[in-house]
Write a structure and sequence with these properties.
5-stranded mixed β-sheet; two-stranded antiparallel ribbon
C-alpha cells in the first residue's frame, strides 16, 4: 500500500513539474490575444502553483520578478476581450507616483489629485477623461476595498490597475474570485514605492487597445490644448520614462494596486 502511495505522490510531482515548466515556457512566449483561452489556462496553472514556485525561488535565491511579469502578461491576454466589453471602468494607481510635495489631500477612497502639474498624474487624468475612466490613487491595498464600496465606483466592472509587477500580480490574484470584475494591469517603469513613474505613451496605447467596440472619444473644451500638453518637453520627459531630475527610470516594481480617486 505504501508503495502505491509513494508512486502516486511521485506521479503527482512529475505532473506538477511538467505543468509548471509548460506554463512558464508558454507564458514567456508572449501569448497573443487570439490565444486568450490558452492564456487563461496558463494563468490558472501559475496561480495554482504560485506558492510552491515562490518557495523554490527563495530556496535557490532567485528573483521572482520574471515570474510576476509572466503572470501579469498572461492575465492581461486572458482578460482583454472581456475587458473591452465592460461598461464602467476605473483606474487604480499607487500613491508613490505623486510628487513629494503633492498638495492633494487624502480621503477614505484615496488621494484627491488637484492636477497641479508636478507629477505624472496630471497627464494620467487627462488620458482617463478622454477614455472614460475614473482614477483612484490609492495609499494601500486595503484602500481598494473602500474604493469598490464607494458610490463613485458603484457598478464598476472593469479595473485597470497600475503598479509594479509584484503588486499587480497580487491584486489580480485577489480579485480573480470576483466574477463581476475584469482586471488588467499596466506596469510602472521602476520600483521602490517612491518617486516612481510609468511610460505615458505606452500607457495611453494600452488603454486605447482596451477600448469598448462602441467607444467614442470624449471631447472637452480644451481637448486641443490637452493634446499639445502631452507633447511639451516636460511631459514628454515623463512619457519617455525620464524623470525631471534627468535620471532614467528602470526595472519594474513599486507599490501596486492600492489607491484613491484623483
Amino acid at each position: 500500500m505504501y508503495r502505491e502511495i509513494g508512486i502516486f505522490v511521485v506521479f503527482l510531482l512529475l505532473v506538477s513539474v511538467i505543468l509548471i515548466i509548460s506554463a512558464l515556457y508558454i507564458g514567456r512566449g508572449r501569448l497573443k490575444e487570439k490565444s486568450s483561452f490558452a492564456a487563461g489556462i496558463v494563468a490558472g496553472v501559475l496561480d495554482f502553483y504560485y506558492k510552491p514556485m515562490m518557495g523554490w525561488i527563495q530556496v535557490f535565491s532567485g528573483s521572482p520578478q520574471r515570474l510576476h511579469e509572466i503572470m501579469v502578461h498572461t492575465k492581461n491576454e486572458a482578460a482583454k476581450k472581456k475587458f473591452r466589453l465592460t461598461e464602467k471602468r476605473i483606474i487604480v494607481a499607487p500613491h508613490c507616483m505623486r510628487h513629494r510635495d503633492c498638495p492633494a489631500h487624502v480621503t477614505r477612497t484615496g488621494i484627491q489629485c488637484r492636477s497641479c502639474g508636478r507629477c505624472v498624474y496630471t497627464q494620467i487624468l487627462k488620458i482617463a477623461e478622454r477614455e472614460h475612466y475614473k482614477v483612484f490613487i490609492v495609499t494601500g491595498s486595503s484602500s481598494v476595498k473602500h474604493v469598490l464600496r464607494s458610490d463613485e465606483a458603484k457598478g464598476t466592472d472593469g479595473i485597470l490597475a497600475v503598479g509594479c509587477y509584484y503588486e499587480l500580480n497580487k491584486g489580480m490574484r485577489e480579485l480573480s474570485g470576483n466574477r463581476r470584475l475584469t482586471v488588467c494591469g499596466y506596469p510602472m517603469l521602476d520600483s521602490g514605492c517612491y518617486n516612481t513613474t510609468i511610460d505615458l505613451i505606452g500607457f495611453e496605447n494600452f488603454i486605447k487597445d482596451l477600448r469598448h467596440p462602441d467607444f467614442k472619444e470624449r471631447k472637452t473644451s480644451d481637448f486641443r490644448e490637452e493634446k499639445e500638453d502631452l507633447t511639451e518637453t516636460g511631459d514628454n520627459d515623463w512619457k519617455s520614462g525620464i524623470r525631471k531630475d534627468g535620471k532614467r527610470a528602470g526595472g519594474s516594481s513599486g507599490s501596486g494596486m492600492s489607491g484613491g480617486r484623483a
